[in-house]
Each structure stands twice: as C-alpha cells, then as structure tokens.
Amino acid sequence: MSTPVIELSGVSRRYEDGPAALDEVSLTVHPGESVAILGPSGSGKSTMLNLIAGLDRPSTGTVTVDGVRVDTLGEAGSARFRRAKIGMVFQFFNLLDDLTVADNVVLPAEMAGMARGAARRRAAGLLDALGIERHAKAYPGRLSGGERQRVAVARALMNRPALLLADEPTGALDSASGADVKALFNELHADGQTIVTVTHDLTLARSCATRTVKIADGRITADHRTAVAG
Ligand SMILES: Nc1ncnc2c1ncn2[C@@H]1O[C@H](COP(=O)(O)OP(=O)(O)O)[C@@H](O)[C@H]1O
Ligand SMILES: [Mg+2]
C-alpha cells in the first residue's frame, strides 16, 4: 500500500484547565481520499486540522503527513513543510486584500522560490481552470464570496500540495456559491487530489466525500466510506 497522506496516532491535545480538545485520536488517510470531518461546534475539528498542518503541536501522540513527522518540526521547518505539502482553505478566505487576485495566487510559489515567469503561468492556468481569470487584476474586495473562495482554492493548489485542507469552506457562502465550491472539490477529487474538509454542511459531506469521519468531544465516533454522488 502507498504511504498514507495523513497518519495520526494516539493524538491528544490539551489546553490548560479544559477537557482534552482532542482525545487519543488515530486516523489514517490514503492518497486520493476525500474525507469530510463532521461534528458539532467545539468538538475538536479545527484543532485536528491545525495539528495536521503543523500549526499546532499535540500534547501526546504523533502526526505524520506525507511521510514527515510534523509534530517534531520547529517553526521554520513547519512553515517550509506547509508551503511544500499543504494547501489550506478557510471559511473567510484569508486573502490579502491589498494584493490583486493574481498576486494572492502567486504568493505561495514565490515564497517557495519558484521562478517568477513559471509561477505567473501556473497562477493564470489555475485562475482559468477555476473560471475566475477575468478577475486576475482585481482586488479581492471587489469579488463575491464564491469568487473569493475560488481564489483561495487556486492559491491553495499553487504549490501542488499533497493535501488540501479546508475548514468550513462553504460556511460563509450562499447556497449557489457553496454549490460551486462543492462542484470544484468534486473535480479536484476526480483529479486525484487528497482532500480533508471540516464542515457542518451535510450536503458537502454527501456530495464530495468518499469518507465521513464524525467527531464529538475530541473523539472519533464514526468513520464511514461513502459514495460520491456527483
Ligand atoms: N487556543 C485555545 N485555548 C484553549 N482552548 C481552546 C483553544 N482552541 C480551541 N480550544 C478548545 O478546544 C475545543 C475544540 O475546539 P475546536 O477545535 O476549535 O472545535 P471545532 O473546530 O470543532 O469547533 C473547544 O472546547 C475549544 O474551546
Ligand atoms: Mg472550527
């Protein structure tokens, strides 16, 4: 079997005082899987994504992503790892409002040292593929929520990540824009992209994920394989 993209082994995360935000979680995700993480607010979903992305460290347990022990990386190593391996999409887009759409998308490649011309060409190709090339020179503030999320997805894909992580990607969108983002995630999955999406949106889980993991009070309570509808 191929190397897992994600391997969480006995992962707990405790903050001072409170109960464990994550409690002995083990989870293996293989290349090409599209996993939806479902659970009520406060159940530990974002904590789990942050640990996978190396933005946070577990209290106990190990986090391995694409063969790299993320939990033992220092700050610089973890930033480098994220640039090379992870694309992230957030509920509120997290675009830089004083950069154009094209400059937002190009930024991760520039930070990774890709040659400028090659980076521009790849960004233009992604914007074209995502249907937002006409906005390349616009500033994000001029775009609709759905368009901004497409820009965020283009940026996330810029460095050809082994793993696309999304935290409530449709949470701030109207239902039509949300449907566009779901269709986009379906296409990415069909192209072989490994995706982990945290969501409250059951239709997103049903329509885009090949696997649904439920989490409550920091523990995995269900883990089902599902058929992708679209
Ligand atoms: N920085 C923090 N300090 C203290 N407690 C936190 C912190 N971040 C999250 N928590 C707690 O950990 C639990 C899980 O939070 P989170 O992972 O954000 O949940 P979800 O994303 O499922 O809504 C919650 O009880 C939350 O209050
Ligand atoms: Mg959250």
UniProtKB/TrEMBL annotation:
Recorded hits in Gene3D superfamilies, A to Z, give:
P-loop containing nucleotide triphosphate hydrolases (3.40.50.300)
Highest classification ranks of the organism:
Bacteria, Bacillati, Actinomycetota, Actinomycetes, Kitasatosporales
Q: Which organism is it from?
A: Kitasatospora kazusensis
Query: Which UniProt keywords are listed?
Result: ATP-binding, Nucleotide-binding, Transport
UniProt GO MF annotations: ATP binding
The answer, when asked if Transport is one of the entry's keywords, is yes
PANTHER family, alphabetically?
ABC TRANSPORTER RELATED, IMPORT ATP-BINDING PROTEIN
Pfam families, alphabetized:
ABC_tran
Per its UniProt record, what InterPro entries does this chain match? AAA+_ATPase, ABC_transporter-like_ATP-bd, ABC_transporter-like_CS, ABC_transpr_LolD-like, MacB-like_ATP-bd, P-loop_NTPase
- Locate the ABC transporter domain: which residues? 6-230
Put simply, this protein is called: ABC transporter ATP-binding protein
